[in-house]
Amino acid sequence: MTLFILLIVAFLVYYLFIYRADNGSQTVTSKVNRCPNCNSIVEKDFNVCPICKETLKKYCTNCGEKIDVHWRFCPYCEKPIDKDVIK
């Protein structure tokens, strides 16, 4: 009976501390920045993709902060982004 209880406790410890921790870290690594054109892994600070030279970042024409190409508004100055201007 004691061995059975120890096995149950070992399984619970494994599940709570090891199995769940390993699965939680996989969700963090799945949030990798990728190029929308060629799907290559890119750093979040890159302005262009080093593989296909797709523009990833541009500068807001109002405040000059670096912003994502797909954003519709600048999060810094709240100005709507003109899609034609890529600086």
UniProtKB/TrEMBL annotation:
<dbReference type="GO" id="GO:0003746">
    <property type="term" value="F:translation elongation factor activity"/>
</dbReference>
<protein>
    <submittedName>
        <fullName>RNA polymerase subunit RPABC4/transcription elongation factor Spt4</fullName>
    </submittedName>
</protein>
<feature type="domain" description="DZANK-type">
    <location>
        <begin position="35"/>
        <end position="78"/>
    </location>
</feature>
<keyword id="KW-0251">Elongation factor</keyword>
<dbReference type="InterPro" id="IPR025874">
    <property type="entry name" value="DZR"/>
</dbReference>
<dbReference type="Pfam" id="PF12773">
    <property type="entry name" value="DZR"/>
</dbReference>
<keyword id="KW-0648">Protein biosynthesis</keyword>
